[in-house]
Amino acid sequence: MKLTLSISKKESELVHEQSLKILATMGLTVLSNAAVDVFKKAGAKIDGHQVYIDARMVEESLKTLPNHFSIYGNQHRVVIGKGDICTMPPYGGTYVSRNDQIRLGTRDDYINFTKLNHANEHINMSCPYSLEPFDVPLEHRDLFRMAMVLKYSDKPSLSLVGSRENAERSIEMIKRYRDISDDYVALGNVNISAPLIMGDSTSEAIMVHCEENQPLMIACGSGLSGLTAPPTHGGNLLLANAAILSGIVFSQILKPGLPVVYGLPLFGVDPYKAETLVGNSAAALFTLAAKGMSDYYNMPFRAGGTFTDAKHLDYQSGYESCLNLLSCLLAEVDCLMHSFGMEDSLKTINYNKYILDEWMYHGLKDYKKGFEINDVTLMMDEILRTGSTGNFISSTNLKLIRKEYSHHGFGEGKTMEETLKKTDAEIEKRLENYKLPHQSKNQKEIIRGYLPDEYID
């Protein structure tokens, strides 16, 4: 019994065909002069900053994409695109919540979540954008985030992508710290803005990753129905797909064969307030659409995680997080971003929800596996031997029950106060048991070369 969901191949073909028409006739706006020159030299039609990409360029670029790749840390390797989920940490938090108390994120919170992600066997990568540490000055903040990710986790990492300098320095830092120069070590997450705009920082980050031969996740997640995208789900999907294709073409012009992950983190919209809604069914449906499109292009894809618009741990939080996470698992997502702990429309990372989401992930993975129906699991001989008035009490059956029915932390119903207390205790336990990965003298010196001593925790 296997459960999977996506849009159909016929629907994917239609989206692709219409995307080709958009790129050829409407084109995209490319703000970087250097990026415009790249497209021009490759044969694209150019009108100022408007770039028109014909079907031939798209199809040739899609042919060069690998359907899987590996990315390396010091002690860990993650394979993306071969069927296993690459779970990624929370991403983009501004606030933190713990025991229902909400405040701006700090450097201590940033390090806490880096430690939690490193120690969590269900998180495969580290991330410099998990949280904004507001007590670190802006001039040091990006390098602080990258340095602390390297110090406190030896898992493969995402890179910095806010500018050419950030991308270059983060990749350089990762390569030097890991002492790895010939493999993929930094995954860049970039976004083509809706409707169809490739901004300076996006094109610069793509160019740097191509120059350094480091893989990319190319997304268009800013399409908001009725504002920066058409009012229908289909129209939003079409525009986002065209944008992603433009980024793929750009990357393959620069570095044919560079791995790219298809990204479609689209969301819903409040029809009365014109605000983004990440927790409703639209986000979950777009995840299933991403599955169909990435299958059509034979490339790995990323989608969201435990999205919710709820501001507290409540019924809404659980329902929306479950809906979005289950959709990711049913779609067999390759890269699961925002895995645990996000709330309030991605503004907040919640310590308690981080644990609850992890338990939910366990339960939904069990659900996704289904159960086997065969001559062994039906246990016909056992049923006949027991008879209509017997029972199935035995030590052997108890072992089978514990194997069949896993227990991952929810258990019996609890009050909110008990839930907060239990999850907070689990957070404290994990932080106390955290073990810093081995750090050589050379690695310490590398970090000191990027940051003042007062920001090297």
UniProtKB/TrEMBL annotation:
GO biological processes: methanogenesis; methylation
Which is an annotated GO molecular function term of this record?
Answer: methyltransferase activity
Q: Where is the signal peptide?
A: none
Q: Which InterPro entries match?
A: MttB-like_sf, MTTB_MeTrfase
Q: Which UniProt keywords apply?
A: Methyltransferase, Transferase
- Top-rank taxon, per record: Bacteria
Gene3D superfamilies associated with the record = Trimethylamine methyltransferase-like
Q: Which family does it belong to?
A: Belongs to the trimethylamine methyltransferase family.
What's this protein's name? Trimethylamine methyltransferase
According to its UniProt entry, this protein's organism is: Acetobacterium bakii
